[in-house]
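Ticket #4471: structure output looks truncated?

Reporter: J.K.
Steps to reproduce: submitted the chain below (230 residues) through the standard prediction queue, then opened the result file.
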Amino acid sequence: MEELDIHKQIKVLLDQATHLLNHKKDFGQAKDTLHKLESMDSENPVVLYNLAIVCIHLQDYNSAIDYLKRCMSLPMTFIDIRQVRKVYIFTLMQKGDYDRALDELQQQNDQDDAIIQMKAFALEKKGNYRQALQLYENILEDNPDNVNACNAIAYIIALLPDGNLSKALELAKKAVSHAPNNAAYNDTLGYVYYKREEYNMAKKFLKKALSLKPDNSEIRSHIDELLNIS
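Returned output as attached by the reporter:
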């Protein structure tokens, strides 16, 4: 009877935690609830996975990685190990550990869009622009409406000394038209205009990008480049 009561308590708390996480977006309270669950059932992969998700939202990537490692060491029950591994790789990249992320990506049997995009992003961050560009172009060939790929291709082309800036402009405009208030897309469009020496247009979109994400160092660096020229 007591064991049944514990299982019932775990279910109630887990329902509370997922509601706080997914609907209320109250990550602090969700974390406290999940910690209670962890003390009751420390080898529950669902609890550990949700703790990792909360830590990612709170930008505590080291803790998230620890929870995901613990989760992956356990028999998977009511959880998809492939999804756990994808989140683990995503967290490594959020932490800036692109070497480790690429090692993990090489070991993945699944080669869906999410895996390919993460690999391309990690290669881009490592400065392997042409390899990244080829992967993004493969994604776009399979799915012409993938605006993340459009944006990434446009940005990488702008970085290359021999990039086709007309193509970059077309793709960057497509991304912004799909999501006008996306800071990254506005930043790319502004940077492409900068590389095309269309400085007034560059200023317009870079300023908008900064207004959307005022603490983003990459956007600020692009504005600094523009100010040094104009």
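Triage note (M.O.): checked the attachment and the full token line is present. Residues 163-230 form a domain with the Serine Threonine Protein Phosphatase 5, Tetratricopeptide repeat fold (CATH 1.25.40.10).
Status: closed, working as intended.
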